[in-house]
Amino acid sequence: MSAEQVSGLCEQLVKAVTVIMDPASTQRYRLEALKFCEEFKEKCPICVPCGLKLAEKTQTAIVRHFGLQILEHVVK
Q1: Cβ atoms < 10 Å from Cβ of 54
Q2: Among 12, 36, 50, 55, which residue carries the largest CB count within 10 Å?
Q3: Percentages helix, strand, coil for the chain, rounded to the nearest 5?
């Protein structure tokens, strides 16, 4: 996958994590975002580049934590 595809997918993941953690989000949107994140971790072949990009210090703490969770999932 190209760098643009990785960046695009990372942007979607950041939005999904933001929806999950936002107290103003509806339950339906949270579940959809959680499903997207879980499917990404289970099926996506570019977990490592996305996990590294999300774990960068330029991201928020919650997004960095999710990036590290992705990397941990790949290792296991």
Answers
A1: 23
A2: 50
A3: 80, 0, 20
27-43 vs 3-21: helix crossing angle, rounded to 10: 140
Let me know: does 50 contact 6? Beta carbons within 8 Å.
Answer: yes
1: closest CA among 43, 37, 46? 46
Candidates 36, 64, 46, 39; CA nearest to 4 is 46
Residue located via tokens 């996990």: 51
Contact call for residues 57 and 68 (beta carbons, < 8 A): no
pLDDT for position 54? 95
pLDDT in tens, 19-61: 999 999 999 999 999 999 999 988 888 899 999 999 999 999 9
Neighbours of 61 (CB within 10 A): 8
Query: What's the whole-model pTM score?
Result: 0.88
